[in-house]
Amino acid sequence: MFEIDPNSQANLTEIATEHVHLDLAVDFAGTKLEGTAVYRLVALLPTQEVVLDTAHLKLGGARLKLIDGSLVPLEIDTNSIHEIYGTALRVLLPEPVAAGDKLTIEVDYETSPDSGAIQFLTPEQTLGKSHPYLFTQCEEIHARSLLPCQDSPSVKISYSANVRVPKPLTALMSAIATGSRNEGNSTVFSFEQQTTIPSYLIALVVGNLASAKISDRCAVWSEPENIDACAWEFAEMETILQTAEDVISPYLWGRYDLLVLPPSFPYGGMENPCLTFVTPTLLAGDRSLTDVIAHEIAHS
To answer: Cis peptide leading into 140, omega within 30 of 0?
Structure first.
């Protein structure tokens, strides 16, 4: 490995990920996510294995999905462990694939409290003090602790997800929300990101969230306790976005939403597609710090 990216153990020269679908449940009591990732792959060279980056994940079974929809169990190997880059997940295919062949595999897994990508907050660490919260930060090489993946910016993927969260919490991702449904004491939120992105731009947040509409394609999200202040502070989002389009190019991501995180969020901002994460320290009360929006939009 390491031929293309010195920070990835994935077989990047042999296999490319085209799309990932996540079906995940959020477990606040266990401080983990658990579920299944489904990968749509294409072979670049002849090979008989798929190697994915992982870190601090508990790995379950893997399966090959055949054209008729049936599933074939696959053998996995997790013996290649690197102190910095994590554990290489080798998924062994039943027979070699040729360059250009496409295949779909599934991997069951769960995260752990040691995940570098996921930050769980207790209610006391939030503004409202009533509900738990989680957010992810995958940059630079932490996506591998959120899901098994080819964790390299040399690979651009689309993704979709179903995320099951306890009521009354809301899930958001760096993708377009496509719907939600009730399942007992949980709500399942669905998302789709059709624009291809590197793995470090996959993002998830779950919490007691409210939104305020700024324009047809812009909204601000935060805990309900400061949504009015956030809506006022960032009321010029659409104007800033239009100015960026005039200077650079049309905005192609569909939505530009802004998420103001709890006070314990340790970063200034993160340019997650469709949903920029920002610190509440930008709430100056005079809109003097909102130029951060222009900075984050420029990343798009």
So the answer is: yes
* Integer Cα distance of 255 and 63 in angstroms: 35
β-sheet with 275-278: strand ranges across: 210-213, 218-222, 256-260, 275-278, 269-270
d(CA 226, CA 284): 13
Whole-angstrom distance, CA of residue 86 vs CA of residue 80: 8
Judge whether 146 and 138 are in contact, CB under 8 Å: yes
Report field, pTM of the whole predicted structure over 0.85: yes
CA distances (Å), 281 to each of 77, 256, 263, 269, in order?
45, 20, 8, 10
Which segments of the chain are extended strands (E)? 15-27, 32-43, 47-54, 58-65, 71-82, 86-97, 102-110, 118-121, 133-136, 157-166, 170-173, 176-183, 186-197, 204-207, 210-213, 218-222, 256-260, 269-270, 275-278
| Per-residue pLDDT tens digits for 64-95 | 999 999 999 999 999 999 999 999 999 999 99
Instruction: Report whether 290 contacts 233 (CB < 8 A).
Output: yes
Q: What radius of gyration do the chain's Cα atoms show?
A: 20
Structure-block tokens of residue 160: 């979709």
DSSP state of 148: -
The alpha helices in the chain, defined as continuous H runs, are 227-233, 237-247, 291-299
